[in-house]
Write the structure tokens for this entry.
Amino acid sequence: MRFLIVSDTHGDARNLSAVLSVLGRAVDGIIHCGDGSTDLAGAMHLGAPMPPAYPVKGNADSLHTLPAQLIVCAGKRRILVAHGHRLLRDSSMTPLLDEAKRNQACACFFGHTHIPCYKSVGRILLVNPGSLSKPRSAWGPSFAVVEIPDEGSNSPGIAGSPGSKCGFDVKFYELKGTYAKPRFHAFRP
């Protein structure tokens, strides 16, 4: 399975549409980690191909029907998706990790900080794709693509984290170019 992970689009459906115009048919789903989850409909309105979507509510989202967090299952692997504003305290990821453990998740995808993050703590993978519209880091607008191997395959584990149970392949990209001609630049946070 392959997921496009985005967050913090904050009303910028054009950047989201640009990414989906290239990757929308190449992924099995899109996970939006909040603050702009309704931009999925805006990107579709702009003509972007739309894979199945899994959005959560961020602190800047007004749509009350969105869940605060959800569990996405990829085979037997459980992924916690949350915006993070309720689970990140004073730069500590401990509450986020505790919630992932409580939900028996091997990974947590989150947003809120607008800063890309790729970290393995124990056996839990933490991924923040950064912001697709208002980045707060050295990189411009960013997103991640996560490849999840089938259960039966010999997955190599997370780079830099031998023995991880998830075995996810995570790639981060910075959006470059124009809306009409998007380009992606790979980077590693």
